Each structure stands twice: as structure tokens, then as C-alpha cells.
Amino acid sequence: MAERTTNGDDRATVREGGPRVVHSQAADRDEGTDLSIAVVEAIAEAKAVEPIEMEPTLYDAVDPDALDRLFTDREGDEFAGRVVFELGAHEVTVQSNGDVLVRQTDPR
């Protein structure tokens, strides 16, 4: 089992012995990337599959359009929060700043 985590300029590094963890930072993404797309990419990376090969899909856990709207077009920096949901064997945390954290919860 491997642990994946952000390390400097590297998007993800792998460490043996821990659960898979992928941290996708909003600052590392293109300006126009929807939050739901960033979530799908982070989950796919944690599962070591292509985004189009994901099962279950993001839509099986949350409404991607609602996720995109949740933290978009908020005035000022006063709004802070997060959404946490499970998708298969992974726990996904989406921060109001656009950061995405995916943790493997089931070591299958």
C-alpha cells in the first residue's frame, strides 16, 4: 500500500506503508478548471485509473453542478467551509478554497 501526498513541486509522491492520499491544490490548477473536474481528477489519481474509467462516478456521491456552485462566486474571503463525502473506498474533502483531499478508507 502506498501513501500519496504533495511534496514541493511534485504533484504527488508515493510512500510505502500507508493508505493512498492525494492532495490537489487549487493553486496548481488552470484558472478555468471546474471544481468537479478537479475532484474527479484527484479521485482518479488516488485510484490509479483514468478519470473516464472511474467506478463509481462522482455523480454517484454528489451532484457535480451543485459542487461547482457551492464555493463559486462568493464575495470576499470570509466564506470558509468544506464538503466531505465518501465515494467507494475513498473519503473526499473539498475545501472552500478549492483544495481537494482524497484518502483511501478501505485498503482493498
From TrEMBL:
It comes from the Archaea. Residues 1-30 are annotated as: Disordered. Residues 33-103 form the Halobacterial output domain. InterPro entries: HalOD1. Residues 1-18 have a biased composition (Basic and acidic residues). This is Halobacterial output domain-containing protein. It comes from Halosimplex pelagicum. The lineage of its organism: Archaea, Methanobacteriati, Methanobacteriota, Stenosarchaea group, Halobacteria.
